[in-house]
Amino acid sequence: MILFDTILQNPSKIFMYKKFFIGYNYKKVEVVKIQKVGCYIMKFRGKRTISIILIFIVIIFLAGYIYYIKFYNRPSKIPQYTKTSTDNAVMRETILPGEKLIFETLYKGNGDITREEQKIGASLYGKSKEDIGKIYSDWSIKEFSNDRIVLYREENGFPPDYYIISSSDGYVSLFKSDGNGGTSLVEKTDILVDNLNPNDKERILNNIVVKDIDEAYSILANLSS
Q: Where are the transmembrane segments (predicted)?
């Protein structure tokens, strides 16, 4: 009985005990039966091993599926941009009614900046920043926002309608700026620049610039006295 239990626990030992059975005068048929029992046990163990492997594979598959559902199938937190939001972004990049168009000009003659503001004309509605750059090719776009467009440029000379007291042919003269870098003569006095005191002479040679014609004539009166 002990020997048979040993064979059941380890069927491969059947062949080791084969001679032992024969030596004790067991019939050949009994040996064959024992061998069949051993083979059956080995097949049973093989099937059991396969079953365990299959169960293990199923467990792994289920665990992977649950992990996927939990971590990869959740609602996306990335904002979804709809067509409406895209359209709004496009609208903000084009001109709308009610916006302001501002022209800024820096005059290098005295460093002053003039600003001219006007309402956007209907002809500019729907125009993009690129369109404005082509229409106003002599200007640079300083600002293009929801409520205004600022165009900028630099010019030589002085702002328009500024008055310049300077020298012409050695005489103190009054000029008016045209805003495009040029001037026109308003009056040529009989005051010789060389007859002025050093301080006034230097001022005339460096140009005296004023915005008001009355102020300009007041300065001329002081120079002649």
A: 50-68
